[in-house]
Amino acid sequence: MANVRQAMFPYGMSKRADGAWFFFNRSYKPVGVTSSDWADWDDPSHKLRLKGLGPATLAKLDHGGKGGSDRIYFYDDASNPELSASNMDAYLKKLRILLSLQEASD
User: Fold this and answer.
1) What is the pLDDT of residue 36?
2) Rounded distance, CA 83 to CA 43, Å?
3) Burial 14-24 (b: 16+ CB within 10 A, else e)
4) 51 and 101 in contact (C-beta within 8 Å)?
5) CB 61, CB 44: distance < 8 Å
6) Is the pTM of this model over 0.85?
């Protein structure tokens, strides 16, 4: 059974073919979805086009510090935010970056 972090907070994000980003929870569902139903990552209602996501910003978001792929993970099992205060601080820093981003206008 998922806890609040696993369901309601982003575990990562994936850049889709159209350039928009999909944010997924620890169950690889759209953030906030707790059902076991199939999740369509290309459903427009679950994607955002964001400005300000250059290589430097993506590297700051990526738990490995690289940010060079179309899938970014904000933490892994060893850096799970629930394991320590420093892990939580690192995760919250990434959320601050996400909260500063704006949706791109087409």
Assistant:
1) 84
2) 33
3) bbbeeebbbbb
4) yes
5) no
6) yes
Burial environment of residue 82 by CB neighbours within 10 A (0 to 12, 13 to 18, 19 or more): exposed
pLDDT per residue as tens digits for the range 28-82: 999 988 888 888 998 988 999 999 899 999 999 999 999 888 999 999 999 999 9
Q: Are 33 and 24 in contact (CB under 8 A)?
A: no
Question: Helix (H, G, I), strand (E, B), or coil: what is residue 27?
Answer: coil
**Amino acid in the structure at residue 103:** E
Query: SS in 3 state form for 40-88?
Result: CCCCHHHEECEECCCHHHHHHHCCCCCCCCCEEECCCHHHCCCCCHHHH
**In 3-state terms, the chain is what percent helix, strand and coil (to 5)?**
30, 15, 50
pLDDT of residue 96: 97
pLDDT at 80: 94
Q: Which residue has the tokens 């700051």?
A: 60
CB 75 within 8 A of CB 11: yes
Q: Token pair for residue 75?
A: 């933490």
